[in-house]
Amino acid sequence: LMRYTRTNMLEVLNADYIYMVDGGHDPKGNEVAEFDETACRDACVSAFANVESIAVSSYFSVRNPSHELRAREIIQRERPGAYVTCGHELATELDALKRATTAVLNAGLIPIIIDLLNSVEDACRRRGINVPVMVVRSDGSLVSVDWARTHPIETVLSGPAASSIGACYLSGASKFSRGSCVVDIGGTTTDIIYLDEAGRPVLGSEGTTVGGHKTLVKSIDIFTFGLGGDSRVRFSKDHELIIGPRRVLPLCSAAAEHPEVIGCLKDIIADGSLQEPIVVFPGDRGKASGTFEERIMAVLRGGPSSVVRLLKNERLANMGMIGLEEMEQKGLVQFAGFTPTDALTALGRLGKWGGEASELGAKIIARGDGESAAALCVTVCESVSRIAAKNIFMKRLSTRGFDFNKEAGAVSLIDFSLLSHDGPAPSIQLKLNTEVIGVGAPSWAFIPRTGELLSELTVQPENAGVAGAVGAAVGAFYLRYAVLITPLASGGYRAHLPEGIKDFELLEAAVDDTAALITPWIKERAMNSGAKNPLVTYKRVDTEAAIAGGIRKIHLSTHLYFDVSDGLEIKLMNK
User: Fold this and answer.
1) Strand 493-497 with 500-504, pairing
2) Which of 148, 187, 521, 569 is most buried, by CB atoms within 10 Å?
């Protein structure tokens, strides 16, 4: 047993400890080092005594998982209370480091998601909801709660995935003649997700990055940027309008709960020095340190306060504002400020809250740019649509292989094209050539104009504000598993199966036998994942290389892709 303590590896894998045990295979699945079972048992007794979750990952385990399987047996026998994740169960691609990272992250998430799902099931029982609980995966499909407990890494980005499924269902995207773009505008961020011609979310070509760590988990291809109904609106020192990426409480909603916000805004107007309508509330995390922070928190115990009042006795107001910004980032305080939601409210387009706070906020912030409050609100709404259109178009170009890092003037050209829409007829037009589907609570206010900027009509389905909930309700079970068959140097072929390797003399025999072995195995796996009546199909893909000037071909590999759907779900949905 050797304890691996290199700091960089611990950071890359996001692990507390790394232990290396002898064993391993080569790319063909041949054992190159015998598995040290004694060292594994010793680690269970000494090193793993206080460990809750353990990840087991070995080089080329996707070509032969026998050592990982044996390690799991030993750990489960010696440490029956520990959660164990094997790398080969989460991915079939090569990349030992990413696979180990995926396994470590999955193991660490297991205790967290178990608590969450237990709470969900308990809440259902208390309310008399006696139904199976299903969880949305990263690709938009559904799995059982038991599967999610042991494979939590597969639920990363499940929220946006559910929104894309819900958007497809609500808009009828599966019947469109071309692909579509789902634009999900929330309070803090906007997500862009593309659907193919069948209405299915397009998956990313690379594994998902979780907390800065690259994994092998396949998820929807999503692009997220900091723009939403609660984005902070302000002017820069150069009088440039800035929207986001930071989030603040909209003034209208803050005033509805705390009427004293109106007085704070009037104080700012009376003072005449501040050009942003910031009202400060106590935060819900962090601990004050230093005289400045302690004094601010003492004032806020009496309720929300304007920045003018909080910094009244500060000799350097700019330094005081920087201090408040730092407190906001730490969670000590929370800002209420002018947002796109306030712009809509001040214009009378959103009647959820009273408009006085939003109108006062618009008056304060407009003073900094010399335009009327109403004109400012119109500009803010137009800017939100333009920012969304710009990001949608840039994402579309990126998916087509366009490299913005190599084309320095491309972004400026897109900005110029969008600004050409100021007149009655745009002089330059961008063309997206996909359907644009708007979902999310504030999408109704911004997506139609976004579509105009991209020369596309938009689809704003009914109940677009709850597309995520709809997607979770209408999602279907789906599972894919790939098996690799490779030629052997000595002749014959090797199937790399989930329980080990198996050799054959003929390729056709390897394909037929693999299909016969995997079909019942993946059916059982599907039923454990939540399927009631799993239907299995598979596709064969041979890879060959031309030699001797293209006269002959040699076999490099064969992939068998097994797809599983739930026949019961399909039947019920068709009905």
Assistant:
1) antiparallel
2) 148
